[in-house]
Amino acid sequence: MLEKDGVPTQDDLASIAPSEERLAKGPVAIIECFQPIPCDPCYDWCKRGAIEKFRDPTDLPQIDYERCNGCSLCVIGCPGLAIFIVDQAYSEKRARVVLPYEFLPLPEEGEVVEALNRKGEKVGRAEVLKVQQTKQKTTLISLLVPQKLAMEVRFFRRGENG
Ligand code: SF4
Ligand code: SF4
Asked: Which one, of 130, 94, 87, lies nearest residue 111 by Cα?
């Protein structure tokens, strides 16, 4: 439960999930922000108007999935590391998941890592597709994961061959 361990419930996740049809179209932001804290920079980072203007800073972000093209700007700008990009159109077998990363050393492109779920549990293996450093402290890590894990994998752990 979110209040106890910071892990959103299935109901929380269902409340923000794009439709299967939208997911199948390609990259889209998944905003896993469920606590009404005073924070709203994701609105300013989105240049496509996909995130609605906040009426109050404690509002939870509302996204128009049809306007979002998965550009990742909001991932860079979110101080809560709460936004991910999921691209289920990457290939038939593998999806691309982009996550914010603020640790060092950075992984290598092509490296196989352990794919972790929101609880930090290993759920499979992932390949690091891209490591994109930004002008902010957040690095974008693109992972390739099995399609069935696209909405599960939200972190990774480096280790020998994942
Ligand atoms: S991924 Fe890009 S288009 Fe989509 S909400 Fe974030 S900033 Fe806007
Ligand atoms: S910037 Fe991140 S933490 Fe802040 S409201 Fe937006 S999604 Fe939530």
From this structure: 130
Ligand nearest to the CA of 50: 1
C-alpha dist (Å) from residue 105 to 101, 122, 131, 157: 10, 20, 11, 12
What is the CA(62)–ligand 1 centre distance, in A?
11
CB 75 within 8 A of CB 129: no
Q: pLDDT by residue (tens digit) across 120-142?
A: 999 999 999 999 999 999 999 99
Confidence class for position 160, pLDDT limits 50, 70, 90: low
Mutate to test the pocket of ligand 2, among 35, 39, 84 (most ligand atoms within 8 A of CB): 39
Instruction: Tell me which residue of 21, 22, 30 sits closest to 51, measured CA to CA.
Output: 30
Query: Ligand 2 pocket test: which of 30, 31, 78 has the largest number of ligand atoms within 8 Å of its C-beta?
Result: 78
pTM: 0.95
